[in-house]
Amino acid sequence: MQYILVVLAAYVLGSSSMAFYLAKLKNVDIRKNGTGNLGASNTTVLLGWWSGILVLIHDVGKGILAVWLSQKLFPELPYIGYAAGVACALGHIFPFYLGFRGGKGFAACFGMTLALDWKVGLAVAVVAVLVTVVTDYIALAATATVLWVPVWFGYAEQSLVPTMILLVLTAVMLYKHKENYRRMLRREEIGLRSTIKGKNRVK
Predict the structure, then answer these.
(1) What is the rounded CA–CA span in Å between residue 172 and residue 16?
(2) For all residues of the chain together, what is the average pLDDT?
(3) What is the C-alpha separation between 114 and 19, in angstroms, rounded?
(4) Which of 52, 67, 68, 190 has the most CB atoms around it within 10 Å of its CB?
(5) 76-119, pLDDT tens digit by residue?
(6) What share of the chain is helix, strand, coil (3-state, %, to 5)?
(7) 20-23 contact pairs (CB < 8 A, 24+)
Protein backbone atom coordinates (compact mmCIF):
# COMPACT_ATOMS: atom_id res chain seq x y z
CA MET A 1 0.00 0.00 0.00
CA GLN A 2 2.87 2.40 0.77
CA TYR A 3 4.41 1.75 -2.63
CA ILE A 4 1.08 2.48 -4.32
CA LEU A 5 0.59 5.73 -2.42
CA VAL A 6 4.13 6.93 -3.17
CA VAL A 7 3.82 6.05 -6.85
CA LEU A 8 0.48 7.86 -7.14
CA ALA A 9 1.83 10.95 -5.36
CA ALA A 10 4.92 10.98 -7.57
CA TYR A 11 2.76 10.63 -10.66
CA VAL A 12 0.62 13.64 -9.63
CA LEU A 13 3.79 15.65 -8.95
CA GLY A 14 5.15 14.70 -12.36
CA SER A 15 1.93 15.79 -14.04
CA SER A 16 2.71 19.41 -13.22
CA SER A 17 3.52 21.07 -16.58
CA MET A 18 5.33 24.40 -16.54
CA ALA A 19 5.45 24.33 -20.36
CA PHE A 20 1.66 24.25 -20.51
CA TYR A 21 1.27 27.00 -17.89
CA LEU A 22 3.72 29.37 -19.62
CA ALA A 23 2.21 28.74 -23.04
CA LYS A 24 -1.25 29.51 -21.63
CA LEU A 25 0.02 32.83 -20.27
CA LYS A 26 1.30 33.72 -23.74
CA ASN A 27 -1.85 32.45 -25.49
CA VAL A 28 0.08 29.77 -27.37
CA ASP A 29 -1.25 26.25 -27.83
CA ILE A 30 2.09 24.51 -27.44
CA ARG A 31 0.57 21.12 -28.25
CA LYS A 32 -0.35 22.32 -31.75
CA ASN A 33 2.93 24.05 -32.57
CA GLY A 34 6.48 22.85 -33.08
CA THR A 35 6.74 19.22 -32.08
CA GLY A 36 3.60 19.45 -29.93
CA ASN A 37 5.68 18.38 -26.97
CA LEU A 38 5.19 19.82 -23.47
CA GLY A 39 8.87 19.98 -22.63
CA ALA A 40 11.81 22.37 -22.40
CA SER A 41 12.99 21.80 -25.96
CA ASN A 42 9.72 22.67 -27.67
CA THR A 43 9.14 25.53 -25.22
CA THR A 44 12.51 27.00 -26.18
CA VAL A 45 11.73 26.69 -29.88
CA LEU A 46 8.32 28.36 -29.54
CA LEU A 47 8.62 30.75 -26.60
CA GLY A 48 12.32 31.52 -26.28
CA TRP A 49 15.28 30.58 -24.11
CA TRP A 50 14.09 32.04 -20.79
CA SER A 51 10.84 30.09 -20.95
CA GLY A 52 12.73 26.96 -21.94
CA ILE A 53 15.16 27.32 -19.04
CA LEU A 54 12.30 27.80 -16.57
CA VAL A 55 10.58 24.67 -17.87
CA LEU A 56 13.86 22.72 -17.68
CA ILE A 57 14.44 23.74 -14.05
CA HIS A 58 10.87 22.83 -13.15
CA ASP A 59 10.95 19.44 -14.86
CA VAL A 60 14.36 18.45 -13.49
CA GLY A 61 13.34 19.70 -10.06
CA LYS A 62 10.22 17.57 -9.82
CA GLY A 63 12.26 14.47 -10.71
CA ILE A 64 14.71 15.28 -7.92
CA LEU A 65 11.91 16.04 -5.46
CA ALA A 66 10.03 12.81 -6.16
CA VAL A 67 13.08 10.65 -5.44
CA TRP A 68 14.30 12.68 -2.47
CA LEU A 69 10.93 12.83 -0.69
CA SER A 70 10.20 9.14 -1.23
CA GLN A 71 13.57 8.10 0.15
CA LYS A 72 13.32 10.46 3.13
CA LEU A 73 9.76 9.53 4.06
CA PHE A 74 10.00 5.79 3.37
CA PRO A 75 13.66 4.75 3.84
CA GLU A 76 12.57 1.23 4.78
CA LEU A 77 11.11 0.53 1.33
CA PRO A 78 13.66 -1.02 -1.07
CA TYR A 79 14.06 0.76 -4.41
CA ILE A 80 11.36 3.28 -3.56
CA GLY A 81 13.41 6.08 -5.14
CA TYR A 82 13.44 4.28 -8.47
CA ALA A 83 9.69 3.66 -8.37
CA ALA A 84 8.93 7.28 -7.43
CA GLY A 85 11.29 8.68 -10.04
CA VAL A 86 9.80 6.59 -12.82
CA ALA A 87 6.25 7.45 -11.70
CA CYS A 88 7.15 11.16 -11.73
CA ALA A 89 8.55 10.94 -15.26
CA LEU A 90 5.47 9.02 -16.41
CA GLY A 91 3.30 11.75 -14.91
CA HIS A 92 5.22 14.27 -17.01
CA ILE A 93 4.69 12.16 -20.13
CA PHE A 94 1.04 11.33 -19.40
CA PRO A 95 -0.52 14.18 -17.34
CA PHE A 96 -4.03 13.13 -16.35
CA TYR A 97 -5.59 16.61 -16.73
CA LEU A 98 -4.16 17.22 -20.22
CA GLY A 99 -5.57 14.20 -21.97
CA PHE A 100 -2.43 12.22 -21.09
CA ARG A 101 -0.46 14.27 -23.64
CA GLY A 102 2.64 15.72 -22.05
CA GLY A 103 6.37 15.82 -22.63
CA LYS A 104 8.95 13.21 -23.56
CA GLY A 105 10.23 12.77 -19.99
CA PHE A 106 13.95 13.41 -20.42
CA ALA A 107 14.28 16.32 -17.98
CA ALA A 108 12.30 14.51 -15.27
CA CYS A 109 14.36 11.39 -15.94
CA PHE A 110 17.53 13.46 -15.58
CA GLY A 111 16.31 14.88 -12.27
CA MET A 112 15.53 11.37 -11.05
CA THR A 113 19.03 10.22 -12.00
CA LEU A 114 20.65 13.17 -10.22
CA ALA A 115 18.73 12.35 -7.04
CA LEU A 116 19.58 8.64 -7.21
CA ASP A 117 23.29 9.29 -7.79
CA TRP A 118 24.58 12.77 -8.58
CA LYS A 119 27.73 11.40 -10.21
CA VAL A 120 25.67 9.37 -12.67
CA GLY A 121 23.50 12.43 -13.21
CA LEU A 122 26.54 14.50 -14.15
CA ALA A 123 27.66 11.75 -16.51
CA VAL A 124 24.22 11.83 -18.13
CA ALA A 125 24.52 15.60 -18.56
CA VAL A 126 27.93 15.30 -20.21
CA VAL A 127 26.76 12.53 -22.56
CA ALA A 128 23.59 14.46 -23.43
CA VAL A 129 25.52 17.65 -24.23
CA LEU A 130 28.12 15.83 -26.32
CA VAL A 131 25.55 13.85 -28.32
CA THR A 132 23.42 16.96 -28.90
CA VAL A 133 26.37 19.07 -30.04
CA VAL A 134 27.71 16.36 -32.36
CA THR A 135 24.38 15.28 -33.89
CA ASP A 136 22.35 18.52 -33.41
CA TYR A 137 19.46 16.43 -32.08
CA ILE A 138 18.34 16.48 -28.44
CA ALA A 139 16.20 13.37 -29.06
CA LEU A 140 19.34 11.33 -29.77
CA ALA A 141 20.88 12.58 -26.53
CA ALA A 142 17.81 11.39 -24.62
CA THR A 143 17.96 8.04 -26.38
CA ALA A 144 21.64 7.53 -25.62
CA THR A 145 21.20 8.18 -21.91
CA VAL A 146 17.98 6.28 -21.21
CA LEU A 147 19.46 3.15 -22.76
CA TRP A 148 22.48 2.87 -20.48
CA VAL A 149 21.15 4.33 -17.21
CA PRO A 150 19.02 1.23 -16.34
CA VAL A 151 21.99 -1.03 -17.02
CA TRP A 152 24.30 1.06 -14.86
CA PHE A 153 22.00 1.18 -11.83
CA GLY A 154 21.36 -2.55 -12.07
CA TYR A 155 25.12 -3.09 -12.01
CA ALA A 156 25.64 -0.60 -9.16
CA GLU A 157 22.89 -2.15 -7.02
CA GLN A 158 23.88 -5.71 -8.01
CA SER A 159 20.22 -6.38 -8.67
CA LEU A 160 17.90 -6.61 -11.66
CA VAL A 161 15.11 -4.82 -9.80
CA PRO A 162 16.32 -1.25 -10.51
CA THR A 163 16.96 -2.19 -14.12
CA MET A 164 13.46 -3.61 -14.56
CA ILE A 165 11.85 -0.54 -12.97
CA LEU A 166 13.87 1.88 -15.09
CA LEU A 167 13.33 -0.09 -18.28
CA VAL A 168 9.62 0.69 -18.03
CA LEU A 169 10.48 4.36 -18.42
CA THR A 170 13.06 3.64 -21.13
CA ALA A 171 10.51 1.77 -23.23
CA VAL A 172 7.93 4.56 -22.89
CA MET A 173 10.46 7.28 -23.72
CA LEU A 174 11.73 5.46 -26.81
CA TYR A 175 8.14 5.07 -27.98
CA LYS A 176 7.40 8.75 -27.34
CA HIS A 177 10.40 9.72 -29.47
CA LYS A 178 9.29 7.70 -32.50
CA GLU A 179 8.10 10.80 -34.35
CA ASN A 180 11.47 12.46 -33.70
CA TYR A 181 13.22 9.50 -35.29
CA ARG A 182 10.93 9.71 -38.32
CA ARG A 183 11.54 13.45 -38.70
CA MET A 184 15.28 12.85 -38.48
CA LEU A 185 15.08 10.34 -41.31
CA ARG A 186 13.14 12.92 -43.35
CA ARG A 187 15.57 15.65 -42.20
CA GLU A 188 12.67 17.65 -40.79
CA GLU A 189 13.62 17.49 -37.10
CA ILE A 190 14.26 20.89 -35.46
CA GLY A 191 17.89 20.78 -34.32
CA LEU A 192 19.80 22.64 -31.65
CA ARG A 193 21.33 25.07 -34.13
CA SER A 194 17.93 26.12 -35.47
CA THR A 195 16.71 26.60 -31.91
CA ILE A 196 19.68 28.84 -31.08
CA LYS A 197 18.95 30.95 -34.14
CA GLY A 198 15.35 31.39 -32.96
CA LYS A 199 13.70 29.73 -35.95
CA ASN A 200 10.07 28.54 -35.61
CA ARG A 201 9.44 30.80 -32.61
CA VAL A 202 5.83 31.88 -32.09
CA LYS A 203 5.53 35.68 -32.07
Answers:
(1) 18
(2) 89
(3) 21
(4) 67
(5) 999 999 999 999 999 999 999 998 999 989 999 999 999 999 99
(6) 75, 0, 25
(7) 20/95, 20/98, 22/47, 22/51, 22/54, 22/55, 23/47
